[in-house]
Design brief:
Blueprint lengths: L2 H15 L8 H12 L17 H6 L1 H9 L23 H12 L27 E4 L4 E3 L6 E7 L7 E9 L6 E9 L3 H5 L17 E6 L14 E3 L4 E8 L6 E3 L2 E6 L9 E5 L10 E2 L6 E8 L4 E10 L3 E9 L5 E7 L9 E10 L4 E8 L16 E2 L9 E9 L5 H11 L1 H13 L6 H8 L7 E2 L5 H11 L6 E2 L1 H19 L1
Antiparallel strand pairs: 1-10, 2-9, 3-8, 4-7, 4-10, 5-6, 5-8, 11-20, 12-19, 13-18, 14-17, 14-20, 15-16, 15-18, 21-22
Helix pairs in contact: 2-5, 4-5, 8-11
The chain binds heme C (HEC).
The site of heme C has 19 residues, from helix 4.
Length: about 500
Amino acid sequence: MSMKSTLFLATFAALATSSTFAEVTFHQDIAPIIYANCTSCHRDGESAPFPLSNFEEVSKKARTIKRVVNDRYMPPWHASPELTHFSDVRRLAEEEILLINQWVEAGKPEGNSEDAPPLPEFAEGWQLGEPDIILTMNEAYPVPAEGPDVYRNFVLPMDLPEDKWVKAIELRPSARAVVHHSLYFLDDSGTARKLDGKDGKPGFHGMSFRTSGSLGGYVPGVSPKHLPGDLARPLPKGSDLVLSTHFHPSGKVEMEQTTVGIYLADKAPTRQIQEIQIPPGFGRGMGINIPAGEANYTITDSFTLPVDAEAVSITGHAHYIAENMNMTAKYPDGEERVLLDIPDWDLDWQDNYFFNEKIILPAGTVLTTTITYDNSESNNDNPFSPPKRIKWGRESTDEMGSITLLAVPTEADDITKLTRQTKINQAKIFAQLGREFSNARILERFQMVIKFLDKDMDGSLQSSELPERLRSPLLLRLDIDKNKTLDASELKTLQDWLESMKASEGA
Ligand code: HEC
């Protein structure tokens, strides 16, 4: 290179760094933004569909990148930007979006590769490093190409000789596209093992085993994280991990063989975590029933904390037509704080948000979840066109909704009180089940059922005429004179109760 052109270049470089003439280049301006905000997902083996880890890859996608960053579709972050109390926020600054716009409009100049920042070192495979326990499904499960959603449980035996404590779990599906979500249950009875493979395919269907615990779950968009401080969840010896996975067929047969990595704590935590789900049972007790066309259907449910507690993390769950959801905390002194606000709910991004500051919720604080659904034609996420009535259900085209707060009592001993209060709150689910049970044509058939059971046709049901499974609960509640027989007036009580349930359902 001649002396003259070197000089020219030096002058040009000086000019370029002065603000008015600054040319936005990939290596100097764009790479740092992309590597810090996008590449963790946009690289081989991760969830995003294409890599963004060098000039060529980013340049090829530049137009789309410009669109998705201006829409704030990427990086994915659905909590309201006004909430600053979360850690690991994925959100670009206005100036960064501006730089991307300028770069694309200027024709995507590459710039000097000497300005290029090094590509950060990302963990290959496991996001949190090598897990303490790695479990893989014995056999792959074939997810059909079409048809309704599939719910399937898979047993991963652990044979732990002693109690352990879990800091984090990472689930790596082999067919990410079809895994809608997966919940982690524990079974210490061996029942799940016995059910496994009974129908000739890996795993088993239905919830016919009693779970002995839960370790949270995987939903798309959640990055695995360690619980903060010395917090950890119990993993009792002898437990098997049961994945309860929901598949959404993709149009082609996919083979799913999930691997799970478990990260352990080295000792038992001093305080225990409590999951507080509001409403409980993913809204099972709320009677969600959204007429076609209804654009603003709201459910709301509250829970009053019986003890002082500290908020750890928060996550929402709903299906397609949920629009927005939030949880507020109303302190005993009347002040209110928004814990989570998701203004534009997206089923594909159900992050678990960790608080980055200490949030103490004193006893008496009222936690309230509000979720709004839009079942109108104008909701692009509506799975039905024209819209249909949508009720609570497990299929992804049904609806549900709740926000779960993980909290730790300030005083370790208060955990029993807090757990008891969450159990009491779950009674809402049973009240709803009662209403649905009474609706299930049992009322119409009531007299027929009595006639069928009343073998000696005396108009009363003797204990021997009652179905064995229902005998003691029925006698306990209805046999007022304790003569081990349900006479006509006692049977009438049962009928009245069923009718009142039906009436309250209609109300
Ligand atoms: C947490 C993981 C994650 C991060 C971080 C992330 N992406 Fe993505 N991105 C995805 C996934 C998964 C998809 C595919 C699913 C989808 O389109 O929603 C995607 C899709 C895209 C698409 C295609 C969208 C379309 O409409 O075709 C673009 C472009 C994109 N990302 C750019 C970016 C950019 C630029 C950043 C950083 C500013 C970024 N992403 C950060 C996970 C991520």
